[in-house]
Amino acid sequence: MKKFITRTNGQALISLLFIVLIGFTIILAAAILIYNNIQASSIVEQSTKAYYIAESGIEEGLLRLLRNPQYTGTAAGQPLSVDSGSVVITVSGGLITATGTYNNTVRKIQAQTVYNNGVLTVSSWKEVW
């Protein structure tokens, strides 16, 4: 009868390396997904802040227009600083436009107003692109 000699000394090492490779691949994939989600959340947060900065610009424009019906907006090249961002306000023919900027993210809001007999009325308020 013949005896077959088998050597299994390296099997454990190969199995261990294979399991480590699979584990590393799973952990790397999870890390990439988490990183992408963090980036997307950051972009959404910056966009939301820019929107609220623009909204505060509309409110500031309304306030200044109430105090001075001849108000035309911020001076060219002189945006107002708001919460680590800036806003540029323009007023033209009852239309107030505020452009909010936060970390290179820009959002723009317009409000249509009517000034009649000393009463300022906002007829529409919307985001524009």
Q: Nutshell version of this structure?
A:
The protein is an alpha+beta fold. It has one helix spanning 11-67, and strands at 80-82, 85-92, 95-102, 105-116, 119-128.
Structure description:
- It is a single chain.
- Strand 1 (80-82) and strand 2 (85-92) form a beta hairpin.
- The protein has one domain (11-128): Pantoate--beta-alanine Ligase, Chain: A,domain 2 (2-Layer Sandwich), CATH 3.30.1300.
- With 129 residues, it is an alpha+beta fold.
- Strands 1-2-3-4-5 form a five-stranded antiparallel sheet.
- The protein is rod-shaped, with a radius of gyration of 30 Å.
- It has one helix at 11-67; strands at residues 80-82, 85-92, 95-102, 105-116, 119-128.
- It has one helix and five strands, in the order αβββββ.
Strand order of the largest sheet: 1-2-3-4-5
Order of helices and strands: HEEEEE
CATH architecture: 2-Layer Sandwich
Oligomer: single chain
Unreliable stretches, pLDDT < 50, 5 or more residues?
A: none
Distance between the termini: 87 Å
C-alpha geometry = rod-shaped
Give the helix/strand class. Answer: alpha+beta
Rounded to the nearest angstrom, the radius of gyration is 30 Å
Biggest sheet layout: 5 strands, antiparallel
Summarize model confidence as the mean pLDDT: 90
CATH class: Alpha Beta
Count of distinct structural domains = 1
Number of helices: 1
Percent range for helical residues?
40-55%
Query: How many distinct beta strands?
Result: 5
The CATH topology comes to Pantoate--beta-alanine Ligase, Chain: A,domain 2
